[in-house]
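Recap from last week: sequence in, structure out.
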Amino acid sequence: MKRNRNSKMEHTTLTSAALAGAIAIMSASGHAVALDEPAETDAPVQVSYPKFQTLRFNEDWSGFDPANGNDYWDDIKHMKLNDDGSVWVGFGGEFRARAETWESFGFSAAPTADDTFALGRVQLYSDWHFGENVRVFIEGESAFSTDRDLPGGIRGLDADTLDLQNAFADFILPFGDSDDKVTLRVGRQGLLYGKQRLVSTLPWSNSQRSWDGAKVMLETHGWQIDAFYTRFTPVSKYDFNDWNAGPDFWGVYATTKLGEDKSIGIDLYYLGLETDTAVTFNGTMGIEERHTVGGRIFGKFGDSGFAYDAEAAYQFGDVGTADVSAYMFATQVSYTAKDISWSPTGYIGFDYASGDDVAGDANVETFNHLFPLGHAYNGYMDLIGRQNIMDISAGVSFKPHKKVLVKADFHNFSRSESADSVYNAGGGVLRATAAGASDDVGQEIDITIKYMVDRHLTLQGGYSHFFAGDYFTDTGADEDIDWAYFQAVYKF
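Predicted structure tokens:
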């Protein structure tokens, strides 16, 4: 029997409703002129707004003229600070509210494994431009949670009371052809590369990742090449996040598009990681120095509706005195029927990450997924990480309305190596292995509905169920897990 949590559920629901209501009110007030209505002038101007990005500093508002806009926030997106407009500042942000409910968290039947709580996040930024060569971007974040009584309580993923998400300066130097330039970025910054399988700010989390350091960005002849050296800044829930606490993280990431129609994308990368405290992989403990080399190819097969994405990476280095030799690869093929009503899209995928075949020996073969967005690839519940895992997935999505997206995903998980454990999306051990345990980890289904009210406001809800496999039966608690959520996101 599940314990009675009505009073807490009512409190959380009211809190979530208040947050979502505030966002809805802001959305309504943010449209003095509706987006699909012309501005009240004799000669309406067609306005093209930059698309909101996961990393807000990647948005380009330099060519935007508020005088031609029809949105409530236009005046603060590009504010000229001198006569010729070479010095300007833009402001923006995000408000997000989410309610979550869990049953049998941790595969447990205990009353403490059921909970309902609310999460909220506020992000505000200012983007300063001093001519074409100097830029300063500052973004603050406050993330908070109502009481979360699940094991682990309120985590760093849930709360970051008041902190700097980004605070950096760019120094930009054009050279060569008209589009060629090199940029030096110094300060706190978000890192996000490729499909975010290995490097992501983790936007789904209530508090996002950031790094302190320097990055050189080269744009030339269709290539974007980044070289960076940083230190990860883990979240300190109620204090200022301190870069001294994190591991060193550095690398080079290059991407380009090939072919006459630029339909083939290529990513090539090297990533380095070194901890200053001991870590453990399947019984082997020590300071970790790990190097990752990899590549990705992606694109579409002309106008056929077929698309593909494939990525592979190999890791070497050491953990203490043990040698690292690990790898992963991931593939996905999709098809979109553009000429059919609701534009259905289907996909199949296969993910594999190596595990350790002998515990505690002189070799570490468990793949380290670094700083991933596992949420998008190994199940929305974030139970399973890309370490010692094989994931066969399939899904379908369709649009019953131009503003509504419905998506269903299925995952079948099994262990790569029987001698190694099952890991979660954060890289921690979800359940330690035991002698003779099955490799069948389980299956997950995810149902998602997203409604884009307008360019500012998005509503999203979902339900997921994890069918616990024989591995959990063989190693302890084995209850199936249910998770449902609703969130509202307002960006400006």
